[in-house]
Amino acid sequence: MYYIAISLLTVLLVPGPTNSLLLQSGISRGLNAHSFRLIAAEWLAYMIQITLWGVFIDRLAVDYSWVVTGTKIFAVCFLFYISLKLWFSTRGNASSVVAAITVPELFLATLTNPKGLFFVSFVAPTGTFLALNSYVPFMSLFSIVIFPVGLVWVATGAYCGRKLHSSITGRMVNRTISVVIGLFASVMLFNVASKVVFA
Question: Are residues 16 and 115 in contact, defined by beta-carbon separation less than 8 angstroms?
C-alpha cells in the first residue's frame, strides 16, 4: 500500500490539465471556499473516470493480456497530445491573463484528464476493479491523497498570485506545465518500452 500511496501522490503532483486549472484558480481567486468546491469536483470526476477505465481494462485484460501494455502506450500518447495542446493553446497571445475557473469547467477537464487512465494502467494492481475488497481500499487511498494535493496546487497559485501576479500570464503557466508533462510522458514511455523490450 505504501508503494501505491507514493505512486498516487507522484502522479497527482505532476502538472496536468486539472492541476493547471487549480493553479490558475489560486492565482485569480486565492485559497477560499470556492477552492474546496473545485477539489471536490476533481475528486468526483476522477472517481467516475478511474472506475469506468478500471472495470473496462481489467475485464478485457482477463482474456487479452496485451490490453494492459496497450493502454499504457495510449495514456502516454495522450499525455504528449495534452502537452502540445497546452504549448500552443495561447500562441500569439503572450499577454493573456489568468482567468477564473468554474466548477463545471474543472469537472469536465478532469473527466477527460489522461491521468485517470494512468492511475488504472500504471498504479492500480491488475484486477483491482474486479472485486470490492481490492477496489474499495484503492479508491479510499486515492480519496485520502487527492484532497491535500489539490490544496497544494491552489495554495501555490494563491502564493504566486500575491507575489508574482503582474508577471504571470496564461501563456507562461500553460507552457511551463506543457514542458513538465512532456518530460513526465517521456519517462513513462521509456518505462513501458523497457518492459516490452526486456520482457
Answer: yes
The confidence score (pLDDT) of residue 99 equals 59
**Sequence-separated (6 or more) residues with CB below 8 Å from residue 62:** 130
Closest CA to 30 of 167, 174, 170, 154: 154
For the segment 56-104, what is each residue's pLDDT rounded down to a tens digit? Answer: 999 988 888 787 788 888 878 887 887 888 788 755 444 445 556 789 9
Residue owning grid cell 487527492: 146
What is the per-residue pLDDT across 12-48, written as a single tens digit (0 to 9) for each? 998 878 888 898 888 888 899 999 999 999 999 999 9
C-alpha dihedral over 178, 145, 115, 28, to 10 degrees? -40
Q: How far is CA 103 from CA 14, 21, 34, 47, 199, in A?
A: 21, 10, 8, 16, 44
Q: What is the pTM of this model?
A: 0.80
Task: Tell which CATH classification among 1.10.10, 3.40.50, 1.20.1250, 1.10.287 matches the domain 2-197.
Answer: 1.20.1250
Measure the CA–CA gap between 128 and 8, rounded to whole angstroms: 15
Amino acid at the residue 134: S
DSSP type of residue 102: -
